[in-house]
Design a protein that fits this description.
By secondary structure, this protein is mostly helical. It has 13 helices and two strands. It comes from Nonomuraea insulae.
């Protein structure tokens, strides 16, 4: 294996390697870490962020960014809880429709005007958060999930794991096929690698960009709806900073912030890595949960530096 191949393996699978190492260390250091209950807790709590990270992976590979997903997650939960009084179908379709439209509008503005995704989705973050506060009377009203079938979607279990875990796995598999085995996925990579060259080759740049932001909005809304089903309510104080967690997980998983490289497997590994770090901090006991943000920030900085070094190494070979 030559230097370029080693660099590529480290970039694509580095998060999985670190994840495996931390699991081994945690298992040796803490008796309660490697228990089925703790493992299930990490996987279940990570599933909602993983759904958002799947959409974020497509956005970042295309060379964009989506800061609105945290607000869409909360809005999706509130709309799902509100819609549950009309049954399971409305509880699912209402948040998907609204969050999908937000993603569509953001994608159209970014693709057709050339505005920076950071600015457009930052405006989306603020606008969606305001819409959620208006619906919930500035957070004073908490809608409760009233449909039992919808609640079961978030609380039901198979083999000790809740339904959202299996939904996340299914979405990840579909996203992997979409990204690696379809023309759409290749277009996403091409746009992130060099948008001007992709346009000259006939890649539908505008349409592809719109699709990735619609996908990101839909998945953020779905994650919020499933979380509302799990909690039996549309909690309005969640989702603050969730967009940063999703971005961190995707980048830690090997997706380049500059676009053009990355994958779903790495993003899922990045999500689980953040979950394992949180679990280890809880095992220590003397550290607060806020310490996870410090560790995650250090991880993110190290990964970005490593990506730069690996990219240089690949260019030199």
């Amino acid at each position: 294996m030559n230097r370029e191949q080693v660099s590529r393996v480290l970039q694509q699978h580095g998060a999985s390697m670190v994840l495996g190492l931390l699991v081994i260390v945690g298992s040796l250091a803490f008796d309660s870490f490697a228990t089925p209950g703790n493992a299930a807790s990490v996987v279940v709590s990570s599933s909602f962020l993983a759904i958002i990270a799947i959409g974020m992976t497509f956005v970042i590979i295309s060379g964009g960014i989506d800061l609105s997903v945290g607000s869409l997650f909360v809005l999706g939960g509130v709309l799902a809880a509100y819609g549950s009084q009309y049954g399971l179908l409305v509880a699912l379709l209402l948040p998907l429709a609204v969050c999908g439209v937000v993603g569509l509008l953001q994608g159209l503005v970014i693709a057709r005007t050339g505005m920076a995704p950071f600015i457009v989705t930052l405006a989306g973050l603020l606008g969606v958060r305001g819409l959620m506060l208006a619906i919930s009377d500035e957070g004073a009203v908490t809608y409760l999930v009233k449909d039992r079938a919808f609640a079961t979607l978030g609380q039901g279990e198979i083999l000790g794991l809740s339904y959202p875990v299996y939904i996340t796995v299914a979405l990840a598999l579909v996203a992997m096929v979409l990204l690696q085995r379809t023309g759409f996925g290749q277009n996403v990579y091409a746009i992130g690698g060099n948008e001007q060259a992709a346009a000259l080759m006939g890649v539908p740049v505008t349409r592809t960009k719109v699709y990735v932001y619609v996908m990101s909005g839909l998945l953020a809304g779905l994650a919020g709806a499933l979380n509302a089903a799990r909690l039996s309510s549309g909690v309005t104080i969640l989702g603050i900073g969730l967009e940063l967690d999703a971005i961190a997980a995707v980048v830690i998983g090997g997706t380049l912030l500059t676009g053009g490289a990355g994958g779903i497997t790495g993003s899922v590994a990045g999500v689980l890595l953040l979950g394992v770090i949180q679990s280890l901090i809880n095992q220590v006991g003397s550290l607060t949960s806020a310490f996870q943000q410090v560790v995650s920030g250090v991880f993110l900085a190290l990964v970005v530096v490593a990506q730069r070094l690996l990219s240089k190494a690949q260019r030199l070979t």
